[in-house]
Amino acid sequence: MRKFYLFVIAALVGSMTFTSCSNEDNAQAGDDTPSTVKAKVGIIIYGNAGGNMDELIESYFFDKVAPLLSDSSNVRVGVCYKYGRDKANVIAMPGGETITIPHTFTGKYAKSGQVVLFELTSKTPLSSGSLGENYGTDWPDMKMYDEGTLTEVIDYFKATMPAEKYIMLIYGHGGGWDSQNDYVREAPATGLARAATRGVLYDEWSESYIGSDALDMFEFRRAVEKSQIPHFDGLFIHSCLMGNMESLSDIYALSDYTICSMHTLVSSLETMVSLVKQLQKDDDFVTASKAMLKECYEVSDKQYTEENGDMKLVDNKEFAKLLPICKKLSSRLQAVYPEKKTEIDDATKKDVYRIDDTNIFVDLQYYAEQMAKATGDAELKAIADELGAQMKKTIMAGNNFYHSPKSKGVKPDFSFSVVALDKTAYQKEGGVNYSFQTAYEYTNFHKQTEWGNWLNTVESNPTLDNPMGGEE
Question: CB of 299 within 8 A of CB of 288?
Fold first, then answer.
C-alpha cells in the first residue's frame, strides 16, 4: 500500500498546487471553495471499467455532471477511477490454452493505466489529458481490488470532502457468484490462489482479470468497515449481476439502502447522472432514487432494444428479514423433494426464470412460486406468499428494462437472483483445490439460510431452452 499512500499525498499536494482563487491551504483543486465546507451529500465514485466504458465515464458523467457542481454546500462528488488497458489481455488457461480479451482504450482525459483521484466540480479542468496531468498517476499495477486501496480512498474523501452523509457509487464490471473461480480469502495466510467471490469490480489491469482479480464482497465489506465511513446512507452498485442474494447478504449492513441490478446492465450512465441531479433537489436518498428510477425508465425503455435487465432500490433493514424466510424455503424444499422429485425437476427445467442465459442464476421469488405450484404443497405455498410479501417491503422501487421477443413470456417484474445448481455441479471440483460446495458455503447467505443444503440435494437445474430465459 506504500505506492497508494504516496499517491494520496501527491493528490493532496496537487489539491493545493492547482487552487486558483483561494489562499486556503485546504482548498479543493480547480475551485475557490475551501474543502472545509460541509456538503449535504458526498458521493464517492470508485471505478475501473476500460474500453468504451472509459468514454462513458468521461462523456456521460464527468462532462454532464461537472457543470452542475458549483455549490459545495449541496452535493460534492469525489472520483477515484482507473483507466483501462490499451492492448489485448492474453490470459493463460489450464492445459496450455489462452484466452485473448480485446481492449480498445477510448479515454481522452487521462492515459491508459492512470489512476485519477479528484473532486469533480464545475471548475475541474476537463480537456484532453487534463485529469491525468493534474490528478493522475501512472500506476497500472495499483490494485483496485485491494481492500486497503478502497479503505484509503474512502478515508481520503472523508478528510477532503466533508459531508453530512455519504453515498458510495461503484462503477465497473460485476460477476455475481462465479462457480468456476469462487473461493473466499478470509485471510491471506490461507495460501489459496486468489479468486473472486461475487466480484463487484474487476481490475482489468491484472494478468487474469476475468474471474480471479475482482474486489469481492468479503473484501468490499472489510474495506468499508475499516474506513472512516463504515456505514453509508446509500450504496449504488452500477455493475452487472449484483442483485443476487449471495452478494447482498454480505453487504446489506454497510448502508441503509442499495441500488443494484440482478441482470447485465446496458447503460449510458443516465442513472448516475440523474441521481446527482435528484440529490441536488432533495438530499434524501430514497426520494432522489425513486425520482431517478422514474426519470430513467422512459429513457431506457425508448433507447435500448436488447436485454437490459432491471434496477431496484432496496431497503436493507427489510432485506435482512428475507433471510429467515429463505431458510424455511430451503428446509421445506429438502423435505418434499423425495416425494415430489419429478415435479420439482420438471418445473426447474422449464418454468423458473433464468438470468441472462446463465443457468446458475434464477429469480428467487418466481422460483419459490413455481416450486409451490408444481408440488401443490401448502407449506411451500405459504412460504412463497410470505417471501412475496416481504419482497414488496424490501424492494422500494424498481424498473424493468428488459426487452425480449414477445413469444417468450418475460416476467413483468423481478426480485433477487439466487444460485440454482444441481447436486452434481454443486459438488464439482473447482480450479484451486476446492469444490463449488466449499466455496458457496463460505457465503453469509448460506450460513443464514442453509441454501447450499438444498443445492446439495436437488438433481436438476434450469436448462438453456427454458422458455422464461434466453435461447441456446
Answer: no
Tell me which residue of 108, 125, 134 sits closest to 13, measured CA to CA.
Answer: 134
Q: Is the Cβ–Cβ distance between 34 and 179 less than 8 Å?
A: no
Give 34-69 pLDDT, tens digit per residue.
Answer: 567 899 999 999 998 877 889 899 999 999 999 999
Bridge partner list, 43 = 77, 167
For residue 133, the one-letter residue type is: E
Rounded (5°) CA angle 128-124-139: 60
The sign of the dihedral angle between the CA atoms of 188, 193, 195, 197 is: negative
Distance CA 244, CA 260 (A): 9
Nearest of 246, 296, 251 to residue 436 by alpha carbon: 246
With cell 447467505, the residue in question is 445
Q: Which pLDDT belongs to residue 192? A: 41
**From CA 212, how far away is CA 195, in angstroms rounded?**
4
Side by side, which strands form the sheet with 417-419?
354-355, 358-363, 417-419
Give the separation between CA 156 and CA 114, rounded to whole angstroms. Answer: 18
pLDDT at 3 over 80: no
Neighbours of 350 (CB within 10 A): 15
**C-alpha to C-alpha distance for 171 and 278, rounded to whole angstroms:** 19
Q: How far apart are CA 194 and CA 188, in angstroms?
A: 9
Sign of CA dihedral 432, 434, 440, 446: negative
What lies within 8 Å, CB to CB, of 221 at 6+ separation is 250, 251, 254
Of residues 359 and 264, the one with the higher pLDDT is 264
Joined together, the cell numbers standing for residue 12 give 493532496
